[in-house]
Amino acid sequence: MLDRLQYIKQRFDEISDLIIQPDIISDQKRYVQLNKEYKDLKALVEKRDEYVKLTNDIKEAKEIISDGSDAEMTEMAKMQLDEANHRLPQLEEEIKFMLIPKDPEDAKNVMVEIRAGTGGDEASIFAGDLFRMYTKYCESKGWRTSVVDVNEGTSGGFKEVIFEVTGEDVYGTLKFEAGVHRVQRVPQTETQGRIHTSAATVMVLPEAEEFDVQIDMNDVRIDLFCSSGPGGQSVNTTKSAVRMTHIPTGLVAQCQDEKSQHKNKDKALQVLRSRLYEMELAKKQEEDAAKRNSQVSSGDRSAKIRTYNYPQGRVTDHRIGLTLYDLDGIMNGSIQKIIDELQLVNNTEKLKESEVF
User: Fold this and answer.
1) Could you tell me the strand order of the sheet in which 314-317 lies?
2) Mean pLDDT across 94-102
3) Quick one: average pLDDT of 50-54?
4) Cβ of 63: how many Cβ atoms within 10 Å?
5) CA 348 vs CA 44, 119, 290, 344: distances in Å
6) Strand-pair partners of 59
7) Element (H, E) at 353
């Protein structure tokens, strides 16, 4: 383990020198990449320093105990040895997980698309509940959310809502939210108190940079139309809303959130680029998941991943068999425990397949 950590320390020292070089600072893309690597390695180097100190403490304590000439020093050395031996296995596990190679996409911002599925008006209301859950969670993380496109339901909620999330390691945190979410509850429109099951689909697209996906604008048809509000009425008379169709793939992206046609074009292109990028990424994720028989693949969009049961106040994630009786808290954005468990399972799977040691 120490050899691997020593290599990381050398790379950290190398990056520490690079990020203060004027030619690196002037190359914004390279500077951002190196800063990210510096930050990731810094946490590992701190663990390495703790590991070195612990192994030195163990060696020193054993020498004092072996000598045994000073009873008080021997007693202190025994306590030091017990503490170090207790901490060392925990530290080794922490380092193992930190050494798992990160997906390069994990640091990206995302486009989240929530679509009402089966269940009519109730599905639209549930899609609205999920949107609120995610925006509250993002707010708690200090991430910024921005609505790109909305198609409102007739009784509240959304038939479809697309929003952008910007922050730190957003895709790595939210990617396992992709899939079909089910709700079991008595709808507001139900008069006889019967429990209905409705569904909404969540897609989490890593936001593609221009250098990730090259789009030939000759392959894109652009349609302009008036922005619409609830019920379909036009909310302005200028054709500021933009719909883009990528002819080779048939993918469509639109934005009507901004008042400026130019800004809507930029956002629609961003969504289109992210959808094209996600198409390729989904193929790769499915291949990777199949290789290791992953429980938490984020590639299968049709998989029913989670059920929100209102009568019992529980939320169950079917991929890892996790059930939590905190439905109110979860619907108010407290989804970190679910995300932590999904990431732990995913990292454990990766650890088994990558021979880190």
Assistant:
1) 144-152, 158-166, 110-116, 196-206, 179-185, 304-309, 314-317, 322-324
2) 82
3) 93
4) 10
5) 18, 36, 16, 6
6) none
7) helix 336-353
